[in-house]
Amino acid sequence: MLRIGATGWVEKDIPACGPLDAICKPIALAPCTSDVHTVWAGAIGDRKDMILGHEAVGEVVEVGSLVRDFKPGDKVLITAITPDWNSLEAQGGYAMHSGGMLSGWKFSNFKDGVFAEYFHVNDADGNLAHLPEGMDIAAAAMLADMVPTGFHGAELADIQFGDNVAVIGIGPVGLMAVAATAIRGAAEIYAVGSRKNCCDLALEYGATEIINYRNGGIVEQIMEKTHGKGVDKVIVAGGDNDTFAEAMEILKPGGIIGNVNYLGEGDFVGVPRSQWGCGMGHKQLRGGLMPGGRLRAEKLAGLVMSGRIHPEKMITHRFTGLDKVEEALMLMKDKPRDLIKPLVIVD
Ligand code: NDP
Ligand code: ZN
User: Fold this and answer.
1) Residue of the nearest CA to atom 2 in ligand 1?
2) What is the whole-number distance in angstroms between the Cα of residue 34 and the centre of ligand 2?
3) 20 to 30 Å CA-CA from 235: which of 74, 166, 168, 312?
4) Number of domains, the chain
């Protein structure tokens, strides 16, 4: 990114490697809706000549003197969020906020991202995971952000077996939330979206009903399906500040909304007073940045290897060569209706 609203290529030195760090080169890259927000909505504030990207599979080219488990030549999964694992926030269970709120998000935020010939990974032993032998590279790329974020939506909403759940938004993040919700044993899963291939994949990943928000209100449609009762949990992975009004309205008392959607505009989100039980409805609203880190990456990789999830099916557009990253990013910006997620194979 050259500045807000403009992308292009910049020439930079290879980053320096600290004692706990690694330098990697990309094997596969994927642009994210968050990259689009960063450039075209200025969502994280002003940035100049910053390398974009936080979704990569890579090869280690250099490690610091204190790195124990990785060496040059290792092929690795890299989590999009790369916390400082020795921070107090990490000890408190919120590593993604190490160093301040949202500060575990370092790539293409506080430092250069992964759309580069070489990139820097802090805390390599904590933020890299070995690429499992035989793993599909597209699935591996989705383990950087889409899988952990979607799954975090299900964690935030505390999905329990037998729950009836609405997943609002079924782009790649919401699709992974559907998969996570199914794995956690939900009964009914109402997937809210409109793009046909997203709807088809949501059904394949475990959704029981598709709610097309363009064909009528979400509230009316879900209340009708649930005979006026509403749902136990809502995961929000799309929509805007007003989506919380709909989520509150369809949520049963005692229910939880788990939000992973990035809210880039406005000063307030709309929580409707009476639908929130005038403050007494025991309806929780939780929102979170995905946690990141090696343990989680290894566990989610286990779900891929055992065939329990198939994130590679979300890849609708493939490119070859680092120079194609810009084209892939533009696709993410324009969101043609047949797009779910693009992938760039670098070598
Ligand atoms: P997409 O744009 O691909 O998907 C958005 C989904 O929301 C689509 O299904 C879209 O439907 C649906 N939608 C749009 N408007 C509405 C509406 N008014 N009501 C209901 N549904 C609506 O996004 P991604 O899946 O790539 O990302 C989702 C969000 O997650 C983004 O905000 C992204 O920045 C954020 N994110 C958060 C992370 C975290 O750590 N918390 C990490 C990564 C991403 P349609 O089918 O019509 O397109
Ligand atoms: Zn992302």
Assistant:
1) 171
2) 6
3) 312
4) 2
Ligand 1, atom 44, residue with closest C-alpha: 34
Measured in Å, residue 341 CA sits from the centre of ligand 1 at: 12
Residue 246 Cα to ligand 1 middle (Å): 15
Ligand 1 pocket by C-beta < 6 Å: which residues? Answer: 32-34, 37, 145, 149, 168-174, 192-195, 198, 213, 237-240, 243, 260-262, 289-290
Q: What residue owns the CA closest to ligand 1's atom 25?
A: 171
* Cβ atoms of 10 and 2 closer than 8 Å: yes
If asked whether residues 281 and 317 sit together in one domain, one would say no
Q: What is the pLDDT of residues 184-237, one digit of tens each?
A: 999 999 999 999 999 999 999 999 999 999 999 999 999 999 999 999 999 999
Q: 133 and 213 share a domain?
A: no
* Assigned token pair, 287: 């929102």
Residues 312 and 257 in one domain: no
- Look at residue 87 in the predicted model and tell me its pLDDT: 97
Encode pLDDT of 98-110 as tens digits: 999 999 999 999 9
pLDDT tops 80 at residue 129: yes
CA distance 148 to 160: 18
For ligand 1, atom 14, the nearest C-alpha belongs to 239
What residue numbers bound the domain in which 194 lies?
149-287
Q: Which residues surround ligand 2, an ion (CB under 5 A)?
A: 32, 34, 145
User: Which residues, other chains included, contact 26 with Cβ-Cβ below 8 Å and sequence gap of 6+?
Assistant: 56, 57, 58, 114, 115, 116, 117, 119, 322, 346
pTM equals 0.97
| CB-CB neighbours of 78 under 10 Å | 31
250 in a domain, yes or no? Answer: yes
